[in-house]
Amino acid sequence: MTVPQVSWNDSYATGVAEIDAQHKILLHILNDARAKLSQSSAAQPIEPIVRDLLSYALYHFETEEALMLEFGYAGALDAEEAAHRGQHRAFTAKVKSVMEDLRGGEAVSVDDLLAFLYDWLIHHILNTDRKLGRFILERRAATSGVAP
Ligand SMILES: [Fe+2]
User: How far is ligand 1, taken at its centre, from the CA of residue 116, in Å?
Assistant: First the structure.
């Protein structure tokens, strides 16, 4: 196993509590998957592990996209909103295609798969999700200014 596990650190924080809580869980699931996948592949089939990870990622994307809708992200930053959704869709398509390869009996490099998952998640959190976070925090601050 050449891919190191990644621990949460505050530079990953978007400042939006519900997004950060889910990112911590996502990272935990990914670290757990890494630990399982480092064991013998005969004892631990890869496909269900990847499927569980994708399932939580999809739930998490729904949460973020619901927040985009709630705070009018598309109306304010249309291109960024479309690019963000596009990254979610591309991740989903890639992981589904890996699962199809696994189901079809094709050899999949666990190291390559983990490297992709970690790289994607960290890059996406640090860039795309933090932009969304800043936007939501600004909107929340603006509305809390008039709230009692
Ligand atoms: Fe995202």
Answer: 16
- The span from the CA of 120 to the CA of 90, in Å, is 10
CB atoms within 10 A of CB 73: 23
CA–CA separation, 111 and 3 (whole Å): 6
pLDDT in tens, 1-11: 689 999 999 99
Burial class (CB in 10 A: 0-12, 13-18, 19+), 113: buried
Q: How many CB atoms lie within 10 A of CB 26?
A: 19
- Residue 51: band (very low, low, confident or very high) from pLDDT cuts 50, 70, 90: very high
Which residue is listed with tokens 């690019």?
A: 83
- Both tokens assigned to 38: 């480092």
Ligand 1 centre to CA of 73 (Å) is: 13
What distance in angstroms lies between residue 81's CA and the mean position of ligand 1's atoms?
10
pTM for the model stands at 0.92
